[in-house]
Amino acid sequence: MFKKELADVSKQTLFFLAAVLALPAALILLKVSPEPYLAVLMPVFQGGLLFWSLFLGASLFGRERRERATEYALTLPYSRAGLLGRLVGARAAVLAALWILSWIVYAGWGSSYSAFPPLALALFYFPLFIISVSLAPLIENFIALCLVSLAAWYVTIPASYILTLAAVRLKGLYIPWEVAKRIPLRGPDTVPADFATAFAVIAFILPIIPFAAALLLSFRKFDIRPSRAFVKRYLTAFAVFLVGAVGLGFVAASAMARTSAYQSFYITSGQKVVEFQPYRVKIHQAGEDIIIKDSLSWWRIQEVGPYLYARDDDANLIRLNTADGTAKMVFKAQKEDRSLWQQWAYRDKIALFSRSASAPLSLLSLVIMDREAPERQKPQIIPCRHPFLETEGRLAANPYLFGTDVREGQAFWLIGFFGRQKGPLRLWEDGRVEELFPGESCPVHTVWFVNGLLLRFDKDSLKIYRENGDGGYRLVKSHPESFSFSSWDFLSRELDPRPVRAVYGKHGDRVARLDLETLELKDVAQLRTAVGAQVIAYFPDRFYLVETGEEGGSTRVSAIGERGVTLLREFENAPLGKWGYALDFQGGGVILGRPEKIEMYAFPDLKELRY
Amino acid sequence: MSDNILEIRNLTVRFRKRAAVDAVTVAFRRGEAVVIAGPNGAGKSTFLRCLAGAIVPDRGRVLYRQGLSRKNIGFLSDRLSLYEGWTLEEAWMFHRREFGIAEPARPTFQGIDLAPRRRIKNLSVGERTLFHLSLLMAQKPAVLLIDEVLHALDPYLRERFLEAVIEAMDEFQTAVIMVNHVFQETAQLPERVMIMDRGRFGLDESREDLERKVKKAAVAGEWPAEIPVLFETLSDLRKERYVYPFREEWAGKSGLDFKDVALGEIVKAFIGGAYVQKRAR
């Protein structure tokens, strides 16, 4: 039976693929669609896959019904489970093969033209198949079955989404792509991206549980008659598992929302706790708490003195005074700016990137404002153009600032790029743009600008550059060894180039000091364990060592400085890396997220902070 | 040790609120030939489909004995259900693989030559019945379930069909359970006769006993009250009454001329009786 089904389904699938390959060519030849071929093929292929998953599921008994062979199939020497396994297994195998093919096509040729990456496609593709398979024994009419399956899929997934959303909302959080918060999707918001992805996965997977379970539990009663026993059993199992899936989804979303909640808090240098809730911000402090009715993003906060600079839902830059709770809009963002959420302070300025609505989207501008101007001002705008920023009419990479200084009366800014193996660039006040290391890759997190030196790290070397007389950078020292640290503040760093004596990093199984005068590396401490240890750097001169033990073990946080490594606090039962545990470094302290609660500790000695 | 190969316990199948098979408990022995008859809608085909696995009972169980498995049960339905789009060759290969049949060639019937490349949908009903039977014969069935297919066969094909069934009974000790109302050529085949009405077996007798217990007599004058009438013909010209269960002492005492009745007529009388009862209700 499996062999027959596999042969049948494979044959049908080959016809489907031939049609998918031919259709774009026909559309191009008839001038219905523009070239290139791949640009037409990929949406046709991905849309076709969804149709095909529906077809394969709905045709579970298609041949038996068409050829009046249902009775014969049911009298074959298999149990009902065996029969179902053979029918579904063959289809699932073809479906999986098609999905792998879609992955290969996507990775090889079509990523630029695809509506979905393969993993996202799978979230639509497999549930649609399972729902249509599940309904196939119930509905004999093929067209009715397809329509009901589509409707079930169309209704249950948004319902499931709303459910997970409700669970998250009950925790006082929200997800970046909430429907209520306007489309296009944008972030970041309260729940971090990986959790938000997990919520989406839950929303897509939950609906298939009752469909799959109802089929599995009722199919042993399936026979040739319009059986009430089968339908009753199916609906009963469906209802029970629907309730179970709802409960499970609710609990999972709720638990995940709770563990991610630590990221909606910010500890200021003055040890106030700022809590970012949907549509309001609460400043916990001694005495009465302050509530500001504004929806601000907790992420990428820039703290300077009493002010917090953060973005609201429209990516406008808001200056929040934590002393009196007043909020002022400093910069009104364009619609196109919603993916640019960072800002950087230096001297008395605050800088951010913008895309002009009137110019092509590829036009990137640096926007500079006086940081403490009492009213919104007209900012200084410096266009930033470079060939590698422009690809197919879209901005190819998101920029970040990692340094600024003044040469011969003219300011410059150093720009790195997320997700790009290119850059960095130097943008001058007059609009000139230079590529600092032409032809060389320079990924994010791997460059620091301090004391006029440019430090570049990769997994097996540390290179130090100093400015030339001609404005370029020349290599002055190279250490062919691993030297690394995590600088989590690179998205909203205070860039003032104040002098720094040394930089610390992880150097194999030791902590090493890079002397910025001699440029020599010297080990200053032995790590307890190289695995699970990392150096956290706060630009330009604060360094911490985090060492976490095995599962169920403790985590130690130490300060690194001229006096070596000094233990600040040991957190019992805090196995970082295990689900539900996280340590977040912030301006005024650290937040330890545990599955069941959130704890806050303030610098300099990590004393527990209660609010 | 029991010779039963199939035991059915408290079997119930419902179509909505109506019980098509109503708490039936019965057993079948290896090698016996059973005919099941009854009025339309009595539940005969449903009962057979339950034994074949095409219908899952709402209650009760079908127990396989003496190593019987689904592979040894052949079911020839009045629907002649097969994949109609296949050629005979494809259908044979599939059936052979699924039922684990070792013989490479499909059994054939004398004088019936079916080209392997013909499609099932292009066969006549008779050819299709014989082809399906040939698939079942290849299984060397321990139980053969046949649901009202004989009436669709011409006398020649019917003879070939019965030859094959009898051969299976001889060779494999096959228990043949057939729903049938055609007894012209098959009267000598069944050893056991079961009459089903409203989902229950109202009669379950060996053929010999039944033939001994059912007699008929022409109606002339008054009918003795103590002699039970199973059914009487409705013709005004000649009224006949079928008696069941018959006792020998009535023959001399009543003055009636009791005659033997052929199996086909017996079955007809029982079915007629069922309809009379139904009307009376």
What would a concise description of this structure say?
The complex is a heterodimer of chains A (about 600) and B (about 280). Chain A is an alpha+beta fold and about 600 residues long.
What do you see in this structure?
- The complex is a heterodimer of chains A (611) and B (281).
- By secondary structure, chain A is α+β, with helices and mostly antiparallel strands.
- Among the domains of chain A are: 1-115, no CATH class; 137-267, no CATH class.
- The longest helix of chain A has 33 residues, at 228-260.
- The radius of gyration of chain A is 29 Å and the shape is elongated.
- The termini of chain A are far apart.
- The radius of gyration of chain B is 21 Å and the shape is globular.
- Chain B has a 6-stranded mixed sheet with strand order 5-6-7-3-8-9, sandwiched between helices.
- Chain B contains 7 helices and 13 strands.
- Helices cover 30% and strands 27% of the residues of chain B.
- Chain B folds into 2 domains: 4-205, 3-Layer(aba) Sandwich (Rossmann fold), CATH 3.40.50.300; 211-280, no CATH class.
- The interface between A and B is medium-sized, with 28 and 29 residues.
